[in-house]
Amino acid sequence: MALAGSSNIGFAVLDNQFRYQMINEGLAGINGMSPAAHLGVPVGEIFPDLFHQIAEPHYRRVLSRGLATHFEVANQVLPMRPHQNYWGLNTNFPISNRNGRVEQLGILVVEVTQQRKLQRVLHELSSRLSGNDGERWFWYAHKIQDCLDRFHDVLGLSFEVLVRAQAADSMEQLVRSVEALDTRLAVMSQLVSEISLSFPVDVTEGQK
Known about the structure:
The protein has one domain (2-197): PAS domain (Beta-Lactamase, 2-Layer Sandwich). Helix content is 55%, strand content 24%. It has helices spanning 25-31, 35-38, 43-46, 48-65, 113-128, 131-168, 171-197; strands spanning 2-3, 9-15, 20-24, 69-78, 81-96, 102-111.
C-alpha cells in the first residue's frame, strides 16, 4: 500500500521478511524511488550494505523481542542518491496481529542531512574565526547548536509517543499522529533552511 501525500517523516511497514508492505511518499523520496516500486521488495535488495551493516540487527530485535529500537544512518551514500551524503534518524517498532504476535514492524525515518551539515559548519566556523568576529560567531553558533539539540531531543520523544500510541490504538491512529508531527517538523526544517542561508559558508561543505 502506497500512502499519498508528501511528508517530512518517512513511514513504512515491513513484513517479517523485511519486505515493504506500506510506504509513504516521504520515505520513498528519501530512498529515491516511487512508493509503488518499493512494495513487496526487501529492504536488503534496495540497500544491501546499509541493511546488513546497520538496519538488519535492529529489525530482527524488534521482531524477536517486541521492543522499539533506534539508530542513525550517518554520512552515507544511498544507491539512488549517489551525489549527496545522507544522515537520517530511524525508529523501528513492533506491529502485532490480533493474537498479539509480532508479524510486522513499522519504521519512522526523518532525514537530518541539512541539520548535520549545519552542525559541522558551525563547528568549523567557530574554530576558524578569531577576535571579536570569532566571539560573535561562537555565541551565535552555540545558540543555534542548542536549538538543533533540542530539536533532535523533541523529535526522539515524539517518536516514542507515536510508538506507544500505535501499540495502544491502531495503525490509522499512528498515521494521523505522524501527519500531526509532520506539520511541526516542516516548520523546524524551514527554520534550519533559513538559518543556513545566513552563514558565509555553504552548508554543503565538508559533506564528504
